[in-house]
Fold this protein.
Amino acid sequence: MLDRLIGSVLVVLLSSNFVTGKMKIEILKIHDLNPNRETQISNLFKQLGGEKAQTNLKEVLEEENSITLAYCEANNVVIGIASMCTYKVKSGKKGWIEDVVVDEKYRGEGIGRRLMEKLLEEGKKKNLTEILLFTEDHRIAAIQLYSDLGFQLKESRIYTLKIQ
């Protein structure tokens, strides 16, 4: 019986996508970029769905562009990203979180939460007064995560105007 139990546990472990080895959540800096990491992030971004255009990552990380990009890397593979832009307006110092995505093979393992917590920690360091984000109605797991982290649905409308 013990052999069967050990065998079952082994099958579960081998079939699981649980991240083994060294996993880290870091803030990506421009000097951390290399062609392999750029390609991995580009491919991961595509999992957000649709045919969203991608801006060159070096441009995104330029110092004058107020972006904090958190990433999760396991075994030298980027498996999650989340970004936050920061800006000052008359109503305060704000952050706007976008492009939160975890590789579909690793969803449900708490990586999205850890990425978000990293961005919230950065927001506190920057003394932000408010952090906003937008998500689509069909992203149920993301909505639950944001709610669990203390985000509240704001009664407002978001309008968009495509310039290019």
